[in-house]
Amino acid sequence: MTNSKHHTGIRYTLLAIAAGVALALTACGGGSAPEPTQAPPATPAAEPTKVSADVVAKGKEAFNKYGCQACHAIQGFAEGAVGPALNNLYTDAQQIIASAEYKSSEGKATTVEGYIRESILNPNAFVVAQCPTGPCPKGVMIQNFKDQISESELEALIGYLMTLGR
Ligand code: HEC
Fold this sequence. Notes:
By secondary structure, this protein is mostly helical. It has 2 domains: 26 residues; 109 residues, Orthogonal Bundle (Cytochrome Bc1 Complex, Chain D, domain 2). Helix content is 48%, strand content 5%. It has 7 helices and 4 strands. Strand 3 and strand 4 form a beta hairpin. Helix 2 packs across helix 7. The site of heme C (HEC) has 27 residues, from helix 3 and helix 5.
């Protein structure tokens, strides 16, 4: 029976194809393979890297409550153009505290957190160079926030601002 022999041949061929497809599918299912883990940073982060959604929400609330948005821009959130835009604050702050200008100023911060705190509580310790419409004016950033903002609002505000530009 040449016919049945022929059929058997086809059946094996089909089985082989099916097996091949199954293998290919398994290989493609590689999405379940573990993601390569990120290399740890060369130096351990000295500052908290995670800020909770609660803190961000509370920080944004304080930002609006104390009128920061009247002078500062944050993409998608605030559009002030008197003081520096805060979109890249974390990176900007790192550069500022490392700069010769900052080191020869009255600024005493050595961390981004400390720099943001100082910017709010003691704004004249260091006056940022560039504002949207020219050199930053000294004394325009509100000088007495330290008497207005509660400790918990301040912490949330700093926590929130530290998420910008990281
Ligand atoms: C009346 C306008 C005005 C208001 C309101 C204001 N700022 Fe400012 N802010 C400025 C100006 C101008 C500067 C730049 C001059 C300086 O460094 O003092 C500045 C600087 C800063 C800096 C440093 C920015 C950088 O790039 O290094 C931070 C941080 C900051 N302000 C946060 C705030 C927060 C938070 C509030 C609200 C609690 C606020 N500011 C309210 C005008 C304002």
